[in-house]
Automatic annotation (TrEMBL):
It catalyses: Mg(2+)(in) = Mg(2+)(out). This is Magnesium and cobalt transport protein CorA. The keyword Cytoplasm does not apply. Keywords: Cell membrane, Ion transport, Magnesium, Membrane, Transmembrane, Transmembrane helix, Transport. It comes from Flagellimonas alvinocaridis. It is a multi-pass membrane protein. Gene3D superfamilies: CorA soluble domain-like, Magnesium transport protein CorA, transmembrane region.
Length: 326
């Protein structure tokens, strides 16, 4: 009877001469090859099969410390050297759709097998499988460390492509000079910041894994392939850090422009207020209801007051011009 674990696990066994690809069988398939000519790649979707994991570890005489490691389903990013195997935990983001989701992945690696355990169904490794099936490149001539290199390179490439698609920074100077600080704009900015932070966290996790893989000392595991990965992931993290700084600069620019606009408005209102304050003062004096105001009896008092107001206005404007307030 085929178990749920076997329905969600596929095995590819390949060598330079041949390959096969089918659902995994706990009774028939093994991880450890009896010959050094074949490489086994097992891909399991789901982390809930602890009984089956135990059976695979014990039946293949793998390091039993793996059972303790696989129990922790929120391991984050880790590289642990065992006696003849390598355990890798990676917290990645799935890039299949627009709504990015987090996923825990485990890798158990030796010189002739890679056991890949993914929390959720689906991956971007079909192009690797196609190269194995079509015998393209040198993948069928290499050991499991080269397969792991391809898998990690795929994750990094997917990050880069999705990042450029979703978070590619643009020159927002024209937008910043025209937009208003509406709640919608602030929501857009916060979403972009959260998205960049999500990619940054995932990329830094992969970078730590790659840096650690360059220093491992496991029998039959070559570290030379991971120098190229380090350059790729460092390029991505540098782009993310650069875009983070650019976004902060654009936010500061936006609010600086908005603050400048507000200052211009306040300056204009202040100038008008200063001009009309003495005029309001004069109008207030002669608007009082006292009978002993001699100027009210003058035949030309009204015109004299208007002239005085005009002189005050002109003097105020000249002072403002001299001080270059406008």
């Amino acid at each position: 009877m085929v178990t749920d674990f076997e329905n969600n696990t596929w095995v590819i066994n390949y060598s330079l001469e041949d390959y096969y690809n089918r659902k995994f069988s706990l009774e028939e398939d093994i991880l450890l090859s009896k010959s050094n000519k074949t490489i086994t790649w097992v891909n399991t979707y789901g982390l809930e099969y602890m009984d089956e994991f135990r059976k695979m570890v014990l039946s293949n005489e793998l390091d039993d410390f793996l059972l303790r490691l696989l129990l922790n389903q929120n391991f984050g990013n880790k590289v642990i050297e065992l006696e003849e195997q390598l355990f890798i935990a990676a917290r990645i983001i799935k890039t299949e759709n627009h709504n990015l989701e987090s996923e825990q992945m485990f890798f158990v690696v030796a010189k002739d097998f890679v056991w890949c355990i993914q929390e959720k169904w689906g991956d971007h490794f079909d192009w690797i499988r196609a190269r194995i099936f079509d015998n393209k490149g040198i993948i069928r001539k290499k050991k499991a460390d080269y397969l792991l290199f391809f898998i990690l390179e795929t994750l990094i490439s997917n990050y880069k492509e999705k990042y450029e698609e979703m978070v590619l920074m643009e020159n927002m100077l024209d937008r910043a000079t025209k937009m208003e600080p509406t709640p919608e704009f602030m929501f857009e900015v916060e979403n972009k910041k959260a998205l960049i932070q999500q990619f940054k966290k995932a990329s830094h996790g992969l970078r730590d894994i790659v840096n650690r893989l360059e220093r491992v000392e496991v029998k039959g595991f070559h570290t030379k392939y991971f120098s190229e990965l380090r350059e790729q992931i460092n390029g991505l993290t540098n782009d993310i850090d650069s875009d983070t700084q650019e976004l902060e600069s654009q936010i500061n620019l936006f609010f600086s422009i908005q603050g400048h606009r507000l200052n211009e408005v306040m300056k204009t209102l202040t100038i008008f207020s200063v001009i009309f304050i003495p005029l309001t003062f004069l109008a207030g004096i002669y608007g009082m209801n006292f009978e002993n105001i001699p100027e009210l009896k003058w035949p030309y008092g009204y015109f004299v007051l208007l002239g005085l107001m005009l002189v005050v206005t002109i003097i105020s404007i000249l002072i403002f011009k001299r001080k270059k307030w406008f």
